[in-house]
Amino acid sequence: MENITLAVDCGGTGIKASVFDQRGKVLVDFPYLKTPYPLSPNLLVEIISDFVLADQRVNRVTVGLPGMIRNGKIVFIPHYINKRGPRTLPDPHLKKLWYGFDLQNTLYKKLKLPILVLNDAEVHAAAVITGVGLETVLTFGTGLGCAIFNNGKLAPHLELSHATIRYGKTIDAWIGEISRRRMGNQLWSRRVKALIGELYPMIIWDKLYIGGGNSERISKSALKSFDYKVKIIPNSAGVAGGVKAWELLTSSSFQNLAGSQSIPFQLNSVSKK
Q1: For residue 201, cis peptide bond before it (omega within 30 degrees of 0)
Q2: Which CATH number applies to 128-232: 3.40.50.150, 3.40.190.10, 3.30.420.40, 3.40.920.10?
Q3: For 5-18, what is each residue's pLDDT tens digit?
Q4: Who's near 33: CB < 8 A, 6+ residues apart?
Q5: Considering only 32-41, 170-179, 254-263, which range has the smallest mean pLDDT?
Q6: Hey, what CATH topology would domain 5-122+246-268 get?
Q7: Is 261's pLDDT higher than 50?
Q8: For residues 233 and 215, is the Cβ–Cβ distance under 8 A?
């Protein structure tokens, strides 16, 4: 039985979903869905379920989310805890619903399919990493996403976006979509360049991949300043990585994510003939 994967990339402003065959070929590209607010966990579950129902061939699901995800559970999530979306005030009720929510297990119980829930930058990374050396992925979108791999093994997730960088602002606020719109791409690109320059001594990567919806808005002059260690990746990696993430998991590259009791059971439920 061939694995047919639904990959869902959940962002602060939009949700993208595609269906892939086992070789990574796109079978269906669903229309872009503007992220609805307020967005409760149950509403997101329904949205993902609707994608599955729209294509009966799907037999496993990968979901990428912003924030800190551990074993399919939400430790922290931005945007969705705000009643009106990014950069608006948090809603205490939504915060209570999201924090600690086991999205992976909830989807599994509802859909009876293998489910993999990861940070969205980790899904991006799965599409592009080579498995050699220290590889870092930064995604520029509504905010900043990050994933780090050492020889193909995923490091514990860091919410770099929460660190303070200038004027008492977090990296998210300093480099995010609202700042880009206010400043324009040229000035914003200077911030991207400065951020990369400041992060390198902290991580000292062998390869840096830059993705996310705003990566294509980085100015040519900023791009020229990057050395051979920096590579721009298409935003489509956010869904394309949905297939590769399962291969990394089964090859133990995501072994520190496999602490979830549900993942091994779900993997065994998919025939690999």
Answers
A1: no
A2: 3.30.420.40
A3: 999 999 999 999 99
A4: 14, 15, 16, 17, 47
A5: 254-263
A6: Nucleotidyltransferase; domain 5 (3.30.420)
A7: no
A8: yes
